[in-house]
Amino acid sequence: MIRTQAVSRAYGDTLVVDNVTLDIPACGVTSIIGPNGAGKSTLLSMVSRLLDMSAGSVTVDGLDVTSTPSDVLARRLSILRQDNHISARITVRDLIGFGRYPHSKGRLTVEDRSHIDKAIDYLDLGALSDRFLDELSGGQRQRAFVAMVLAQDTDYVLLDEPLNNLDMKHAMGMMKLMRQAASELGKTVVLVLHDINFASWYSDYIVAMKGGKVAAQGPAPEMIRPDVLSEIYEMDIKVHEIGGQLISVYYG
Amino acid sequence: MPERSTSPGLSPRQVLIILAALAAVSITAFMVIGAKGSWGFVLPFRGTKVWGIAMVGGAIAVATVLFQTITANRILTPGIMGYDALFRLVRTVQIFFLGGLSYATFNAQLQFALETVLMVGLSTLLFRWLFNRAARDLYLLVLVGIVFGVLFRSLAGLMQRLINPNDYAVLQDVMFAGFNTIDKSLLMVSTLAILGTGVWVWRLLPALDVLNLGRDNAINLGVAYRSVVSQVLIIIAILVSVSTALVGPVTFFGLLVSNLAYMLIRSHKHALILPAAVLLAIIALIGGQVILERVFGFDSALAIIIELVGGVVFIAMLLKGNRK
Ligand SMILES: Nc1ncnc2c1ncn2[C@@H]1O[C@H](COP(=O)(O)OP(=O)(O)OP(=O)(O)O)[C@@H](O)[C@H]1O
Ligand SMILES: [Mg+2]
Question: Which residues cross the membrane (chain B) (predicted)?
Answer without folding.
Answer: 15-35, 50-73, 85-106, 112-131, 138-156, 185-205, 217-240, 246-265, 272-292, 298-319
